[in-house]
Amino acid sequence: MSDTLNADPAELAKFSELAHRWWDPESEFRPLHQINPLRLEWIIGLAPLVGKKVLDVGCGGGILADSMARKGADVTGIDLSTKALRIAQLHAIETQTPSVQYREISAEALASEQPSQFDVVTCMEMLEHVPDPASIVRSCAQLVKPGGWVFFSTINRNMKAFALAIVAAEYVLKMLPRGTHEYAKLIQPHELAAYCREAALELRQAKGLSYSPLTKRYSLGAGTSVNYLFATQRVI
């Protein structure tokens, strides 16, 4: 792997080892299956997907990419995990998912290849796993058309997020494998907002994602103290 590639080999290896379990809703990826309807509905509420050209950056096994294609979008999913992409491609073939394709390419490389080509770009649960998240944000801004939407989701960096998103989720409730997240890589909302401003992305809406251990359900709300989502638009 190139030293200049904006990816952590350890992170890629970690998710590659679990690639065969992406589409098992009771596996380590269960939280992604549970939150996907929420984030999909939120995206559609701001940027209807029918007939739109959509890019999913860091698509993994294709959970979000697949669901956006089924809502009428022409979707491209990109990732640097070969095994995860194979699982995504196999699932698309098996389920005959319309209008979805997958490529093993970085966001930066695709931005050079296809600038301003997408109506909507999504980058969910990825920024906290790369060495240079600002570079991903810039690439997403370059890939989307002027006026197009870019959606991000990630995890805040504070003691509450450490307690809930790492200690509780990974060690107590065991919702995620231990070591899924590193505290130092988490991103505070003001930091992500700065990356967006520098990339000419204007923040339109911020949402928080919370989990109730009692009901075992996720919900979207106003608080961004732990998991949060940004909806942005390219202004130039």
UniProtKB/TrEMBL annotation:
Does the entry feature the keyword Methyltransferase, yes or no?
yes
Stored SUPFAM superfamilies: S-adenosyl-L-methionine-dependent methyltransferases (SSF53335)
Q: Where along this sequence does the record place binding of S-adenosyl-L-methionine?
A: 39, 58, 79, 124
Q: Which GO terms describe its biological process?
A: methylation
Which GO MF terms does the UniProt record name? Answer: 2-polyprenyl-6-hydroxyphenol methylase activity; 3-demethylubiquinol 3-O-methyltransferase activity; polyprenyldihydroxybenzoate methyltransferase activity
Pathway stated in the Swiss-Prot or TrEMBL entry: Cofactor biosynthesis; ubiquinone biosynthesis
Superkingdom per UniProt? Bacteria
Q: Which residues form the signal peptide?
A: none
What is the recorded function of this protein according to its Swiss-Prot or TrEMBL entry? O-methyltransferase that catalyzes the 2 O-methylation steps in the ubiquinone biosynthetic pathway.
Q: What's this protein's family per the entry?
A: Belongs to the methyltransferase superfamily. UbiG/COQ3 family.
NCBIfam families with a match to the protein in the record: UbiG (TIGR01983)
Q: What is this protein called?
A: Ubiquinone biosynthesis O-methyltransferase
Source organism (scientific name): Paenacidovorax caeni
Corresponding gene?
ubiG
